[in-house]
Amino acid sequence: MTVYRTCTRDWSTTSPAAAPAPLAEQAVPLPPSGWLADELFLIAHDDVTGGLRVPAGAIRRGLAAAMLADLAFVGAVTVAASGMVVTGTAAPGAVDPWGRTVLRWIETDTPHPPAAWLDRLAGHAYRSVADRLTVAGVVRPRTVRRWWWRRDTAYPAVDTNVAAWPWARLTMRVRRHTRLTVHDSTLARLCVATGLGGHVLGADTLPARRQLRQLLTPVPPGIDQLVRHLAAADRRSRHSQHDRRSRHGRQGRR
Hints:
With 254 residues, the chain is mainly α. The protein has one domain (4-248): yeast vps74-n-term truncation variant fold. It contains ten helices and four strands; from the N terminus they run αααββααββααααα. It has helices at residues 23-26, 36-44, 56-73, 97-108, 114-135, 160-175, 182-194, 197-201, 206-215, 221-253, and strands at residues 77-79, 85-87, 142-147, 150-154. The strands form two sheets. The chain has a two-stranded antiparallel sheet with strand order 1-2. A two-stranded antiparallel ribbon has the order 3-4. A hairpin with a 2-residue loop joins strand 3 and strand 4 (150-154). Helix 2 runs antiparallel to helix 3, helix 3 packs antiparallel against helix 7 (182-194) and helix 7 (182-194) runs parallel beside helix 10.
């Protein structure tokens, strides 16, 4: 099996929001277990078809949280005692061009709590991570026609062993009742909060979640806050969808 977590790649992004840096500045070493946002993206997509396993809105919010968590782990951002997201002290080379764009936003904008940044970054995070993994040669974009007027982009894996590694690593450790690292504890929390709990745990049930909690290692407080805000946003979204369906149902019976 190709081991994704040991690779070092050029993690530049072609996202319109962040102009690519010169080639010499683009190479950013991959952390020992991979960027959280990249691994969440791969878990959220079928590695053969490239289709999403969860609603698009959920994965966009999840990727926004994962990107902020990645920045927090390298010391580029933190959640201050005031509850606001602020920049940290990491060297610019610790993040990619898109990460530096996010840092400029945080640094120059009015301070906001994590929930506000999740909403703001959700519209950009998906494309940014997709571009990064495409440039890295991990996924390949493929246009899929859903209806005659609508086309979506799927992201099948270039190498299914590489793409499946984050899911396989988490699933194997959970099934073996192995204590999770801080990185994998964060990734598991992000998966559950994004609606991918069933895919990782085998079944998204209360007993499965209780078992997972016993395996989790505590994460830094700021990152824990990001995940909690993500889970709250996901609950609000599900309740909103349920309310809309209920209203449509009542209108249809009239």
